[in-house]
Specification:
408 residues, alpha/beta, Rossmann fold, 16 strands
Amino acid sequence: MKGKDAKPHIGLFGRRNNGKSSLINFLANQEVAIVSDFAGTTTDPVKKSIEIPGIGPVIMVDTAGIDDEGELGMKRIQKSMAAIKTIDFALLIITNNTFGEPEQKIVSELQKFDVPFLVVHNKADIAAAENNFASEIKNRFGVEIINFSTHKGFEADMLIEKIKNNIPETAYFSKSLVGDIITHGDLVLLITPIDVEAPEGRLILPQVQAIRDVLDNDAIAVVCKEREVDALIKRLQPEPALVICDSQVFQKADASVPDHIPLTSFSTVLARYKGDFSSYLNGTHEIDNLKDGDKILVLESCSHHVSCDDIGRVKIPRWLSNFTGKKLEYTVVAGLNDIPGQMTDYAMVVQCGGCMITRKQIVSRLKPAIDAGIPVTNYGMTIAYVHGIYNRAISPFVKVDNSSIDYL
């Protein structure tokens, strides 16, 4: 299942006919999910966009029953389990005081990926959770069971309040991209090349996000193409407090922007904003240790038009190979599709900025590599490293000296 929306993702898991789809409709106050008395109506995970008061727009991920049967049923269960990597919060739906092996597997996977969850005992108007049963679940997993039903006296507000109190605030409250390094009235220069990879008639999402973030922090955004930088820098008064450029013109920007003015890239900003920045900092320098025959995994997690000079498929492989002088092999995986082979097959992982997916999805995507001790980095930090401007790219966010890198 591809993650193409940066809104918080809430997954619903449970056995067939436990009322997952009905619960989504109840929370949305409209019929957004197909409901049937026939077990197994929901097959593949399906996304439903709804509004939750106090949180805002969220994506509800309706999954297939975790007790499905047969060869096809096992594939559906695998897809339901895989959805856990893409969500920020989960509701485990049970009924009839039943909590067995399927539920335990879901809980184990949720805990593995640090996904907080609630256990909802649905259809409580027919049979509520017994006290002994509820106490046992709370003692074993540290979560209380919530009696609920879409019928007869149960209110959506009660469950919504429980969700609001338990979903991580980081899932729906966005921190600022650069608000901690600029101040009121600062001028921020954004260098945005318009080339074959630029979408027709508009800017790419990271550029739009950066402009909005500068304005949200009561600073001034000035936007130009790379050809205008030299002349513009001489005229700007006051001079920029920060310059952010596209990674592909980093060398040009480095030459044009005086050394005393902080300079970074949109991709490096995104790496700190929603990636695993500390792991990127630890992993990027491992580029120096790549050897002939090493396999590099390139994760293009967002959906973009693929051009003849694509950044992830063409430019980064070319730059890495030229910089290291090694014969490297590259595997590019788009979206959140399965990674070929074993993670230990790869010597390094290069992750895109992730402008169209959530931070949780990026962190979960990189977790197998980090757990296996595989170095991870991101597009912008890789490009800066191989072009000799890495320290300058990260210096707006960390203290850099010759021996170490420390967070500000």
